[in-house]
Amino acid sequence: MNKLYIGNLGENVSPLDLESLFKDSKIPFSGQFLVKTGYAFVDCPDESWAMKAIEALSGKVELHGKLIEVEHSVPKRQRECQRNAALLHSDPLVWKKAIAIFKGLGHFVQKLEEAL
């Protein structure tokens, strides 16, 4: 995954600020920075450059007085699935209720019980 999320940005951060930061850090990027209020996205040429950007910049570099966060961009739908999965795994009672609700589905419930 080569798309990066850059977070904890000040309101006045511009694409030029981010371009300068990446160029000064000698980290190549593809295309333009998509800047929103408080965060931005950018593509790196490949996975190794994306990892280097994360390692070099995340939590280590200030931009307009704020320490930036850099991580792999995760699509919204995937973030929601991960959050829901984390909720299910964190509460055994939720699992028991889910099993009770889906008892009629046989094979599915058997696999679910085995996963517990």
From TrEMBL:
The keyword Transmembrane helix does not apply. One of its GO terms (molecular function) is RNA binding. It holds the Pfam family RRM_1. Residues 2-75 form the RRM domain. Keywords: RNA-binding. InterPro entries: Nucleotide-bd_a/b_plait_sf, RBD_domain_sf, RRM_dom. Gene3D superfamilies: 3.30.70.330. This is RRM domain-containing protein. It comes from Hirundo rustica rustica.
